[in-house]
Design a protein that fits this description.
The chain has 316 residues and is an alpha/beta fold. Strands 1, 2, 3, 4, 5, 6, 7 and 8 form an 8-stranded mixed sheet that branches. Helix 7 runs antiparallel to helix 8 and helix 7 packs across helix 10. The chain starts with 9 loop residues before the first helix and ends with a strand. The model has no long low-confidence stretch (mean pLDDT 91).
Amino acid sequence: METVHKSVMLKEAIEGLNLKNGLVVVDATMGGGGHSLEILKNILPLGTLIAIDRDSEAIERFKNKIKEENLNIKDENLILVKDNFANIKNILEEKGIKKVNAVLADFGLSSDQLDDRERGFSFNSNSKLDMRMDKDQELSAYEVINDYSEEELYRIINEFGEEKFARKITKKIVEVRAKNKIEKMNELVEIIAQVVPEKFKHQRIHFATRTLQAIRMEVNQELGSIEKFIQDVIYKISPEGRLAVISFHSGEDRLVKNIFRDLAVNCECPPEFPVCCCTRRAKLKMITRKPITAAESEIEENPRSRSAKMRIVQKI
């Protein structure tokens, strides 16, 4: 069970976290394990990495990666957790960890998941509609496509996917499923193809990408998980500790930017007040005013990094 995943902005992320021997670090979205492995190399022999992923297969792949690297890792150096990163507060409390020095979260899907035809993420497959990051959860893309109301579907595809043909796509889905349940990914892609104008079918981004991305975000409750995660993890980071977040979707990046901006506000008094009279104090400071993006050389090697944006903040 080898990984084919290439970690995005690996060098930039590791440098941005200011890692050194002995730190306690969280990789909240382990995925292919590339970031986790580099984190370990930078904090050993005295450091501890808490690596989290919803996908049990990702955890098994990382165990194999550790063996292959032949790193001298003790039990206290690595804690592997199968859970949703949104539960970070409970995860750390259950492990008896009060504070951490650095946190990394990469909200993109790993290539291992994208390329696994049985997981139903790829629109080039005839796999069942699934899209679950955690195979143990009940809600899948099948239920979203076949059971959600027309208005619910439209809201998801319009808001999460920012798809200009959301209304037409939604109506077509509802029309088709009234006759027969939509069960496979290629069936859904064909439905989308029937309503997207021809001139939009031959662009750099596949015409079904925005719709499928929106469905995936709904299945895994991604935006809600991101907001809960950031709000909770900030209180677990030690002063001067850093949080680096990598997003691949404009809605995710916008959410992250707004949360960071809100947590960096140091006073909410009206501008005409001569002195501050409120109790509002900033919880973090921005390390990156603008998001870091992948270098052209990385994009050429790994096209999926094109849409990645990384923001880094530091706890005050």
